[in-house]
Amino acid sequence: MKTPLTSIGIYGELIQKHPELITKKPHMATIITQSQETLLDIVNNILDLEKLSVDGSLPMDLEDFDLVPIVERMVETLRPQAMQKEICLTAHLNPLPIIFNADRHQIERIIQNLISNAVKYTPQKGEVNVTLRHAEALITIEVADTGYGIPEEELPHVFDRFRRVDKHRNKAAGTGLGLAITQQLVQAHGGEVTVASTEGEGTTFTIQFPLQSNNNNSEN
Q1: pLDDT of residue 80
Q2: Which of 9, 42, 126, 183 could staple 122 via S-S, CB 3.0–4.6 A?
Q3: What band does 217 get if pLDDT is binned at 50, 70 and 90?
Q4: 94/76 same-domain check
Q5: 151 shares its domain with 169
Q6: Where are the alpha helices (DSSP H) in 56-137?
Q7: Residue 215 falls within a domain, yes or no?
Q8: For residue 220, is it within any domain?
Q9: Nearest Cα to 141, choosing from 80, 88, 74?
Q10: Is residue 108 part of a domain?
């Protein structure tokens, strides 16, 4: 929490002493807003993780929805972030609808976390591929990147709270909470998330959810 609080404090104090900076240097207000949003996200993640630890679940607003446009929309939401680094962000989507019974907001959060993480830890002009498919009563979502990769000794700890790969700390900002909350949300929906990575080559996160028996779609 120290980094966003520091930014809010420094720029807030400067604007308080020199109000004219709001018009002369509007990026200061932008940084304050972004830092506030980051701080709020950290607090919400901590609260959700604590609730999951204590109660074992979060309140779920379950509904039937098509997962294909959800994944497509999350890819488009993160595309500007990828374009800033000239990263090729590609979606490989199931050709038919995949009707899934889940909490739509939490599923969006899971997918957004993984894509954002992939873009964040992929260098300039790299690639991030998002794949959605289903077969054999399983829905599979894969987010694969050509990023920095995770050292083998760090792999067992990637879903730990506040855990960040030491070698990556200077490459991208992060809280070490995104993957922890992602794993908890996936498990809350009866799914599983796994990771495979080769240092210097890239990382693939794979999520699998059981497909409801009333979903009669098939993969072509």
Answers
A1: 87
A2: 126
A3: very low
A4: yes
A5: yes
A6: 67-84, 104-120
A7: no
A8: no
A9: 74
A10: yes
- Is residue 199 within 8 A of residue 152, CB to CB? The reply is yes
Looking at the structure, tell me whether residues 170 and 142 fall in a common domain. Answer: yes
- The single-letter DSSP state of residue 126 is -
Burial of 49 (0-12, 13-18, 19+ CB in 10 A): middle
Whole-number Å distance between alpha carbons of 146 and 188: 29
User: Rounded to an integer, what is the distance from CA 93 to the centroid of its chain?
Assistant: 18
Q: Are 205 and 191 in contact (CB under 8 A)?
A: no
Location of structure tokens 């992939």:
118
Is pLDDT above 50 for 141? yes
The parent domain of residue 17 ranges over 2-55
Residue among 92, 77, 178 nearest 127 (CA): 92
What's the structural domain count of the chain?
Answer: 2
Q: How far apart are CA 100 and CA 60, in angstroms?
A: 14
Pair (93, 21) in one structural domain? no
Q: Are residues 169 and 138 in the same domain?
A: yes
User: What's 212's DSSP letter?
Assistant: P
